[in-house]
Amino acid sequence: MNAPEWLKPGIYGALIGAALVGVVGFTWGGWVTGGTANDRAMAMSRNDVVASMVPVCLDMARSDPARADKLAAIRAASTYQRRDALMTAGWATMPGTDAPDRDIAQACLKELDL
């Protein structure tokens, strides 16, 4: 059986075109794999949870009777140790949890303008 003369170049063209579409789609087209999409979704949800917990941290800071002493301790700490000082103050420990959250502490510190 004889194959048509155009079949071989047509198959090569289809394969090269498919490879080119894949390369362009993943580099400039914004396509991602399922794993990358999952990682991005998890990061976005984590950021949203942290953003929603910052008002709780600020409220805990406002209602703390020892606020002035704790703020003084946070301000006295060096810039890179302020997050740990805020965590020690207890304001980054959300109700229902046992340990402070570093991301919430960092976001709360930013909102406190220290």
What does this structure look like?
- The mean pLDDT is 94.
- The protein is mostly helical and 114 residues long.
- It starts with 6 loop residues before the first helix and ends with a helix.
- It has a domain of 62 residues.
- It has five helices and no strands.
- It is 70% helix and 0% strand.
- Helix 2 crosses helix 5 and helix 3 packs antiparallel against helix 4.
Keywords:
mainly alpha, 114 residues
Summarize the structure.
By secondary structure, the chain is mainly α. It is built from 5 helices and no strands. It has helices spanning 7-27, 34-63, 67-76, 82-89, 102-112.
* Major beta sheet summary: none
Mean pLDDT: 94
Shape verdict: rod-shaped
Helix content: over 70%
Q: Which structural class best describes the helix and strand composition?
A: mainly alpha
Oligomeric form: single chain
Radius of gyration of CA atoms, rounded to a whole number: 27 Å
How many helical stretches? 5
Instruction: Return residue spans where pLDDT drops below 50 for at least 5 consecutive residues.
Output: none
Count of β-strands: 0
Element string (H = helix, E = strand): HHHHH
In what range is the share of β-strand residues? under 5%
Distance between the termini: 82 Å
Map the helices and strands.
Blueprint: H1 7-27, H2 34-63, H3 67-76, H4 82-89, H5 102-112
Helix pairs in contact: 2-5, 3-4, 4-5
